[in-house]
Design a protein that fits this description.
homodimer; alpha/beta; Rossmann fold; Rna Polymerase Sigma Factor, Chain: A; 2 domains; eight-stranded mixed β-sheet; two-stranded antiparallel ribbon; 10 helices; 16% strand; globular
């Protein structure tokens, strides 16, 4: 994509180039907090064609800093889709065969209603007046989109990290509407350490005076420095010590000597700075607060007196879980806990732990074993149902 | 200690209540960067008595946010010594038997020359005009203090984390002056992941507009928010997932329900905020930059073409290394690498990996196995040398 075609994040947040569905006063979103969000809109992309009996729809759920541009060029960054290795024509999730839907989560900043959205009641950006949302709210909104598309049952719901939380929530709240659930590199709750890292990120954003108590859009400012720090810290947790050692080690920048100063001497430093600075051009700082908060609040077992198995009793959904050995944000143990609960609930479960040194980010990368696992699982069920190749 | 007796960090930085040695123009500190630091001063504490043949001195080296108040009440916080479980009368390092020295590192902020020190040449705080220093520079300055105290050879040098780096540097640079070296929870180099975490902390400080390009003291400001964020992030790396889970889990604050907001709902959040906010009252933001930088630069093998064993060839120092199973900042692997190098160099080495779920911070906590290991090692050698009990 040429640079000239790239749109600003602000444009995209309020008048997205994606498909859009708007829910008016008659269809409010009833939030976990008890408040109503109304009106609201969902921006989404689709790939492939819905078949005649509407049985080939796959919903992809995105992670914290992802969006609906799973398999198409991103309108703001100009980069290709974030999961195009998994989703596309001839890919493990083959868009020649399946109708793929991916929507920006509620609270996000790529066109679905979120804190950067103009509140029609005031004509100003919501900022912190946007209600705090949960993973359950994101999924409820997605269910309304799926209704809107005239689809009763999804063939599969697939996602990693925060996307995986949504997959679990779908299987929990809308069990009858999900044939296959594929939660990848995720957990049924956010751990204390994960909450801790999120809190540091939020404090970094809120410490930035340009955050203006959340009102930066109306005040024409941008808490870029705070958001960049938040992103840098989080980014470390997406990688692994082994991957950092392999990619960067203690390598210095091209001048190849230390400067005895505070510039980026080490390659890992300039890499992280780059991650921070590019992120702030495409992401809304308040969305970062809202989405990390939704992750913190997620705890499927808590709604069932701590018994995770009770979240899935009687389910007919078939599960395939994937974890990665070097993922320390959502370690295998978190997936195993879900597998045990699903077993206890009598559900059909496959589970694969993939050997990788790439850390949590592995789910977004070229991991042939993951692609093979997803493809095999999806393919076998599709064949059974007679969904044509 | 009563609150009224507590002094301000700024007072303590420039006119410490500790003992002080000043080195004038005739005794500059030749820095690793090539510059000279002159004049400079070292603030230090001692416990116990130096014996007649000056053979019972133990130097304790402090970690990043520690200082010389290893076994005495802290003049700023009013808290007891940071290693008083290890050092004191009747303790594993028994001050009835040993003469214990602990000095604030060069670059620190508790009385030794650092960026918060008033530069006598200008009458203003150094700020970023203070030269960037290395672990080697800290140790050179300590050696000048040890000279000043009339001690040729230290019975032992002991420290954890950044303190352990200094122990290794002592054994490397002043091998003949160190009988026993006890590096705890440390490494012979900072890893890419550790550099990454330090860099995020530095960026958090420097993103704070109250940092003023390092000139905040002269401008009467204080980058408290940025430094608090840095501390919060670093603090997570000092603990372990298991310890966080055991201490906090997903426990909520006393109202025991989530607020659907951005206040501290979870106990881990308020704990981290407390860690951040109390830290900024006792620590200088520029010192944080300088000391993290010194850690990043540390790489003993690099001076020997990557052969760590060559850093210790011919050494007569006896080593005892300690690591903790749940320490992911300086994992056991880093200690084992040092042990292998020492073995290859033909040195005398003991090594103990201690089972603990407390993470990196274990070295500061009540870890009887660590205390027993240090006591046993020190005691056996003292008995051999006829240092009285």
């Amino acid at each position: 994509m040429e640079q000239s075609k790239v749109r600003s994040a602000r444009d995209e947040a309020n008048s997205p180039t994606s498909k859009l569905v708007q829910f008016g006063a008659d269809k409010p979103l009833k939030l976990g907090s008890g408040s109503l969000l109304s009106p609201f809109q969902i921006a989404y992309q689709t790939e492939g064609e819905l078949n005649a009996d509407r049985s080939n729809a796959i919903l992809i759920c995105h992670a914290l800093t992802g969006d609906q541009h799973v398999a198409n060029v991103h309108p703001v960054t100009g980069k290709s889709g974030w999961w195009e290795m998994l989703v596309g024509p001839g890919r493990p999730i083959d868009t020649n065969r399946f109708f793929v839907i991916c929507s920006n989560v509620i609270g996000g900043c790529m066109g679905s209603s979120g804190p950067a959205t103009i509140d029609p009641a005031t004509g100003k950006a919501y900022g912190l007046n946007f209600p705090v949302i949960t993973i359950g709210d994101m999924v409820k909104a997605q269910a309304m989109l799926v209704d809107h598309l005239g689809i009763d049952q999804l063939f599969a719901v697939v996602g990693g990290s925060m996307g995986g939380m949504q997959v679990l929530e779908w299987a929990h709240s809308f069990s009858d509407r999900v044939r296959l659930a594929i939660p990848i590199a995720t957990g049924a709750r956010h751990t204390a350490q994960n909450i801790a890292f999120n809190e540091v990120g939020r404090q970094a954003v809120m410490a930035d005076p340009d955050w203006c108590g959340g009102d930066y859009i109306e005040q024409g400012r941008h808490p870029a420095k705070g958001l960049a720090v938040a992103r840098m810290g989080a980014h470390i947790t997406y990688l692994s010590e082994a991957a950092l050692h392999r990619k960067f080690g203690r390598n210095l920048q091209d001048r190849n000597e230390i400067t005895f100063g505070f510039d980026a001497d080490f390659q890992i430093e300039s890499y992280l700075r780059h991650q921070g600075f590019t992120f702030v051009d495409r992401f809304d700082a308040n969305s970062y607060l809202y989405l990390t908060r939704a992750m913190d609040y997620f705890d499927l077992a808590a709604e069932h007196n701590g018994r995770l198995a009770d979240a899935f009793r009687g389910t007919k959904t078939r599960f395939c879980l994937v974890s990665f050995t070097s993922d320390w944000l959502f370690p295998t143990e978190e997936s195993r806990m879900i597998v045990h609960a699903l077993n206890a609930a009598g559900a059909s479960v496959s589970f694969v732990e993939i050997e990788s040194d790439k850390g949590h980010d592995a789910f977004l990368l070229d991991e042939p074993e993951m692609h093979a696992a997803v493809h095999g699982f999806v393919n076998a069920a599709a064949r059974q149902m007679g969904i044509g190749e």
